[in-house]
Design a protein that fits this description.
Blueprint: E1 2-6, E2 9-13, E3 32-42, E4 48-51, E5 54-60, E6 65-77, E7 83-86, E8 89-96, E9 102-109, H1 118-135, E10 143-149, E11 156-157, E12 162-166, H2 179-194, E13 203-204, H3 210-227, H4 233-251, H5 273-290, H6 293-305, E14 309-310, H7 312-323, H8 332-335, E15 341-349, E16 354-362, E17 377-384, E18 390-391, E19 405-409, E20 413-418, E21 426-428, E22 438-441, H9 445-454, H10 458-481, H11 490-502, H12 507-514, H13 519-528, H14 535-552, H15 554-564, H16 574-591, H17 596-608, H18 612-622, H19 627-641, H20 645-652
Length: 653
């Protein structure tokens, strides 16, 4: 884009090749330069003139004009240049870094929006403090500025010292933003700030290395988001759901490409789920393999390459030296496209108390890559006995049994033998989604229920709950299409009963375990099974599943709702977010019963709620069960928020 104007606000978007549209320049990411920028404009029309770096001076000019001078002493590539000119207002805070340096933090927005920027400011402060604590990174300029613009043509941009955001990624207040919006704002602000060291001070040698700056920064913002809550697993689940739904689909389609593509016609097409999200998953696998040595490598990376433009190889070489581990084979994650499938087989030799796990990896062909080499795949495993207790994991000819351990798969087929296993265990594999692969394990239905209720790894508990749901829904869709009776297995109902009682202390995890997969998830699963997607069947069967569960647990859901339906003032804190999630999960199930009492409950919440999370949850609950109540609620919602375009987007959805 370069420099453009919208609604009388001038702003820039220079990544990837926009700076050349402003002026002649060696517009490549490896050309790093300090910048001094002087902006002159009509003072009445454009009272605020911003650019990268530190403020130097401002002075009046003739004919009602003025100019402002900015200096950025830290060399940066041209894609990080930014300027903004407009009639904006601001809020400001000052923080002190760990070296006792004062930094002014400012957020600019249009007059109607400035009162909705306080949460963004708090999020920025948390991100700065987190990076100092977790990665020992300190901010380097005197000022850090964010500008929120309604018509910014990208979601957000990490320009050095002057981030520019679309307003939807900044503005929040309880009446117009749901908990999910708050979480997104917090994370996007962190992402752009964290680029200061992974992208800005250490940039990339060429655009083929985009996966390094974006994958590494997405991984860091994932860690930040996990650290902002008490229980990290629900955030991890959210990231994996996103990866599976969007990136796995990209990997299996005609546009499949490596994390580091080898060619491009248009650079803007590089900004894909594979480059960003799979790029982050690859970094996390490296973290899983290296453990604490990963952070040792990061410190060396910051020290060795500060102020330089680097490649994936430069990053991996630092990690190799820090961990004393050869990563040549690991580099295949950057050059081979597609999602590997890992098939897990098992064998128990009772008389020798030996348990064997065999892993077979299949790397499917993708456009331009018909033959693949075996990848390095970290597998976090544990062995559970019949009571759900851990059997110590001890590999043959190795000492020191442990509760769980990381296996490193490097071959097309690889077998591990575990000794001193007193009974045939249920293996818990790929705990916490230790590798971005598809997994096939020959679990029985009962074993999946067992892991769902007993596994100590909460991610795997959730993963098994999804698989059970999807298997049952798939079978019910088959029955529906044959005009056969629908049936929800009694064993599943009993497992949900265990979960509802067992997980009450972890409210956020409870909502994840109980939630029925979305229509889109079910459609993806049907497609994987080579079933022709039938939207009507998916909708009907999913509703039937919800109504059946609600009928069995109506008293429990009502008790959960009443207990969680407190009238405390809105706060975006982990306990309060969890409370609202449980309440609205319970409401959603209850309303599916379509009784006058439950429909009235939802409409009452819609009318009386003091926050968008509860308002929107009640509106969505009514959407499938009562046309009259839903239409009335929709009309009220539209009239109330008709002048707020960000909220009206929710009305459209």
């Amino acid at each position: 884009m370069g420099l453009y104007v919208s609604n009388d606000i001038y702003c820039t978007q220079c990544e990837a090749e926009g700076f050349r549209k402003i002026t002649y320049f060696l517009d490549r990411p490896d050309v790093m330069s300090p910048y001094t920028c002087t902006i002159a404009a009509d003072q009445k029309k454009y009272p605020v003139l911003l650019s990268n770096g530190n403020f130097i001076q401002s002075e009046p000019l003739d004919n009602g004009r003025h100019c402002v001078k900015w200096d950025d002493p830290i060399p940066k590539p041209s894609y990080l240049f930014a300027m903004v000119a407009g009639d904006l207002e601001s809020i400001e805070e000052t923080i002190t870094t760990k070296s006792n340096k004062k930094v002014a933090l400012r957020i600019y927005a249009e007059k109607d929006n400035i009162n909705h920027c306080q949460f963004a400011m708090k999020s920025l402060i948390k991100a700065i403090q987190w990076d100092e604590t977790r990665f020992d990174r300190e901010y380097d300029l005197d000022t850090y500025m964010i500008v929120a613009i309604n018509d910014f043509n990208a979601g957000a941009m990490e320009n050095k010292g002057l981030n520019i955001f679309n307003a939807k990624s900044i503005l929040a207040d309880p009446d117009t933003a749901a908990d999910s919006d708050y979480a997104t704002i917090q994370r996007v602000i962190a992402h752009e700030y964290l680029h200061n060291w992974t992208g800005n001070r250490i940039t990339i040698k060429n655009w083929f290395q985009l996966c390094l700056k974006e994958g590494l920064t997405v991984f860091r913002d994932q860690l930040f988001a996990e650290d902002m809550v008490v229980n990290k697993v629900p955030r991890r689940i959210q990231d994996v759901q996103k990866l599976r739904m969007h990136q796995f689909s990209e990997d299996s389609g005609p546009n499949a490409h490596p994390v580091r593509p080898e060619q491009y016609i248009e650079m803007s097409n590089f900004y894909t789920k594979t480059v960003y999200d799979k790029g982050a998953a690859v970094i996390r696998m490296l973290y899983t393999l290296l453990g604490d040595l990963f952070f040792k490598g990061m410190m060396k990376y910051f020290e060795q390459y500060d102020g330089k433009a680097v490649t994936v190889e430069d990053f991996l070489s630092v990690m190799e030296n820090a961990a004393e581990m050869n990563l040549d084979q690991f580099k295949l994650w950057y050059t081979q496209a597609g999602t590997p499938l890992v098939i897990v087989e098992r064998k128990y030799i009772a008389d020798k108390q030996i348990f064997e796990l065999t892993f077979k990896q299949i790397c499917p062909p993708t456009p331009g890559q018909t033959k693949k080499h075996p990848m390095v795949i970290p597998v976090d495993i544990a062995l559970l006995d019949s009571k759900g207790q851990h059997i110590p994991v001890q590999i043959m000819n190795e000492s020191d049994p442990v509760k769980h351990r990381i296996l490193k798969i490097t071959e097309s087929e690889q077998t591990f033998q575990f000794t001193n296993v007193p009974e045939n265990p249920v293996p818990s594999v790929f705990r916490n989604f230790s590798a971005c692969v598809k997994v096939s394990v020959d679990y029985s239905f009962d074993e999946r229920l067992f892991l769902m209720t007993h596994d100590s790894d909460d991610f795997n508990r959730w993963d098994q709950s999804r698989q059970i749901y999807l298997d049952c829904l798939y079978q019910m869709i088959q029955a529906y299409q044959k005009n056969c009776a629908l049936n929800v297995p009694q064993e599943m109902i009993e497992a949900l009963n265990v979960i509802l009682k067992k997980s009450l202390t972890n409210k956020t995890l409870l909502t994840k375990l109980i939630a029925i997969p979305s229509d889109i998830e079910i459609a993806h699963y049907c497609a994987e099974k080579s079933m022709l997607i039938n939207p009507d069947a998916i909708f009907f069967v999913r509703q039937y599943m919800k109504e059946t569960i609600a009928s069995h647990f109506s008293e429990i859901f009502m008790a959960l709702y009443n207990k969680s339906n407190t009238h405390t003032a809105y706060a975006f804190t982990p306990p309060e977010v969890a409370r609202r999630r449980v309440k609205n999960m319970a409401l959603n199930f209850l309303v599916s019963l379509k009784t006058p009492k439950t429909k009235s409950l939802a409409f009452k919440q819609f009318k009386n709620a003091d926050n968008m999370t509860d308002i929107y949850a009640a509106l969505r609950s009514l959407s499938h069960v009562d046309h009259d109540s839903f239409q009335k609620a929709c009309d009220i919602f539209f009239f109330r928020y008709r002048k707020n375009p960000l909220v009206i987007n929710k009305w459209f959805s």
